[in-house]
Structure formats: structure tokens, C-alpha cells
Design brief:
230 residues, mainly alpha, Serine Threonine Protein Phosphatase 5, Tetratricopeptide repeat, 11 helices, 77% helix, transmembrane helix, Ycf3/AcsC/BcsC/TPR_MFPF, transmembrane
Length: 230
């Protein structure tokens, strides 16, 4: 019985084919193989080029995005400096410039909001702080500023709630201090001392600030308070 190879061609039958036809078949197979190799190489090169262009475009986009982010962060630091120097109008103007470039830059809404609150514009200030929290609910500084704004306007229960909200995500010294100052106004020695000690544990410099803090006047003469600030 004639053996069949993997192509299913009888070796006995193949041996009866004339030499000229064999050569033609061989040439056709060679041409097919070369064509297949060339096509495969072309497709591979095309894929590599397209892939390289794609990566290059992505890298360029990333660089542009990073540069833009760095620029906004630099401008935000200017706004922070204005706020630290109590230049609230300049703080608001700088924050507006940042927002005009990127209306999703939550830090700008936050700094603008607290500056507005210090400028006797509580409603607009809170709207901006809330916008910052809408864009980034876990932004600790916005949670703190919401508590601070409430405290500034005498809404102490709300302020305590938001100081606690800030402390859920960060152990911020001024949130502990804010709580202590509210309890100081309320003549609650126990809670004043409790939260002031937490603030002092983080930053001992708080002692010198607390000594001159008018919010602590109602509890300042207590032995427990004096122990904390000595």
C-alpha cells in the first residue's frame, strides 16, 4: 500500500509526475513561500510603526498633562500664600484664574471658599467648599475648612461634626485644636483638655498659641488646662 504523507499526496503517485511539472510545482511553492514571508514582514513592521506612533502620542499627551498640572499646582501655592497673609481678595482672584483653566481643580474651589468666608461671604464660601468636596469627597483640607467656616459663624455643632469628618481621614493638628477651642467657649474643661492634649502631642508649639487663645478664657484658670499648656 502506498504511504501517504501529511499533505495526503501518495508518494507512489508523486513519483510518476514528469520532472518538468515537478519543477513548476516547486517554483510555485517557492513563490508562495517568499510572498508569505514578505507579507508577514510587512504586517509586522506596520504594526510596530503604528504601535510606536501610538505610544509616542500617549507619552506626549502625558507630558502635556503633567506640565499643565504642575502649572496649576504652582498657581495654587500662590493662592495659598495670599490666604496665609490674609489677602483674601487676591486669594479669590487667583483661585478664579485657576478655575478658568480647569473647572475640576478642587483645591482652587476650597481655597476660594474659605477666603470668601473670611470676607464675610458665608453663603458663597460654603458653595465653593462644597464644590471642592463634590469633586473630591476625601480632600481633608476642604473638610477642615468646612468645619472652620461653621466655627467662624458660630455654628458649633456643625463645626464639631466636620472636624470629626476631617479626623476620619487625617490626624490634623488644627482639627483637634478647633474642637478644643469650641469646647473652651462652652466651658467644657474635660473636652477642652482632651482635644488640646491631642493637638499638643502632634505639635508641642500649640502650647504657646493656646496660652494666648481667647477661646480658652472660660477654662484658662482650671488646673487641668494649666497642666496642658505649662
Amino acid at each position: 500500500m502506498a504511504f501517504k504523507n501529511r499533505r495526503g499526496i501518495s508518494t507512489k503517485l508523486f513519483g510518476k509526475i514528469p520532472l518538468k511539472i515537478k519543477i513548476v510545482i516547486f517554483c510555485i511553492l517557492c513563490i508562495f513561500a517568499v510572498t508569505l514571508i514578505v507579507k508577514t514582514s510587512y504586517l509586522n513592521n506596520k504594526y510596530k510603526t503604528a504601535s510606536g506612533n501610538s505610544h509616542g502620542s500617549t507619552a506626549k499627551s502625558t507630558v502635556i498633562k503633567n506640565n499643565r498640572s504642575d502649572k496649576l499646582e504652582s498657581e495654587y501655592k500662590i493662592a495659598q500664600n495670599f490666604f496665609s497673609n490674609k489677602e483674601y481678595s487676591k486669594t479669590i482672584d487667583k483661585a478664579n484664574e485657576i478655575i478658568s483653566q480647569d473647572d475640576k481643580y478642587y483645591k482652587a474651589y476650597n481655597i476660594k471658599g474659605i477666603a470668601l468666608c473670611y470676607s464675610s461671604n458665608y453663603e458663597e464660601g460654603m458653595k465653593n467648599i462644597d464644590e471642592a468636596l463634590k469633586l473630591n469627597p476625601d480632600f481633608g483640607y476642604a473638610r477642615f475648612n468646612k468645619a472652620l467656616a461653621y466655627e467662624l459663624y458660630g455654628k458649633y455643632d456643625e463645626a464639631l461634626y466636620w472636624y470629626d469628618k476631617d479626623l476620619e481621614i487625617e490626624k490634623y493638628v488644627w482639627s483637634y485644636y478647633g474642637k478644643a477651642s469650641i469646647y473652651g467657649r462652652r466651658e467644657d474643661v474635660s473636652n477642652t483638655v482632651k482635644f488640646l492634649k491631642m493637638a499638643v502631642d502632634i505639635s508641642p508649639d500649640i502650647k504657646s498659641i493656646a496660652r494666648d487663645e481667647k477661646d480658652f478664657d472660660p477654662v484658662k484658670n482650671s488646673r487641668e488646662f494649666q497642666e496642658v499648656i505649662k
